[in-house]
Amino acid sequence: MSTRPEAPEHPTEQQPRLNFAELAPEVYKAMYRLDTAARQGLDPVLVELVKIRASQINHCAFCIDMHTKDARHAGESEARIHLLSAWEEAAGHYTAKERAALALTEAVTVLTDGFVPDAVYRRAAAHFEERELAQLIALILTINAWNRIAVTCRSVPGTYQPGQPHR
Fold first, then answer.
1. Does the pLDDT of residue 77 top 70, yes or no?
2. From the CB of residue 108, how many other CB atoms can be counted at a distance below 10 Å?
3. Taken in order 139, 144, 149, 155, is the CA torsion positive or negative?
4. Is the model's pLDDT at 42 over the cut of 80?
């Protein structure tokens, strides 16, 4: 006999609040263009790692689902996807450049101290040329904006398939 309490058969699911793309189409289109511009010149796998990590921090299930699927579609391994939330402890699975990008992602996403620490910025600057670093910063800002839209609107995860128009 198990002493663990039984989980409800169907946990309470939140319902979407509104369809942002439909109700603010010009903003949505602008965000999509910003997202497309932000990823220019960046490695597609790195793009997905950054998007997944920011989405984990922001608790955006919709974006975690989307970008995990996109990462797999881009050839990312299951191990690296699963270890991403603990990338510092799993350093051997990520390149120095990826670790620098993930550290910058966390610093820009959280802004706990109200700024991005110089050491984190210098670490990223050591691995990215200035133009690429600017693109990375734009990518981080963009995924954070998408996360805030999806979390606020309660976008429902699970239906996205790679190859669909997305952010």
1. yes
2. 21
3. positive
4. yes
Residue, of 1 and 56, whose pLDDT is higher: 56
Query: Which residue has 């997305």 as its token pair?
Result: 166
User: Whole-angstrom Cα distance, residue 102 to residue 40?
Assistant: 18
User: 91 falls in which pLDDT band (50, 70, 90)?
Assistant: confident
How far apart CA 52 and CA 102 sit, in angstroms, is 10
Give CA–CA dist 62/149, Å, rounded.
10
Task: Evaluate if residue 167 carries a pLDDT over 60.
Answer: no
What predicted TM-score, i.e. pTM, was given to this entire model? 0.89
Q: Quickly list DSSP for 110-136.
A: H-TTSS--HHHHHHHHHHS-HHHHHHH
Q: How many CA atoms lie within 13 A of 134 on its CB side?
A: 3
Is the C-alpha dihedral spanning 63, 31, 111, 130 positive or negative? positive
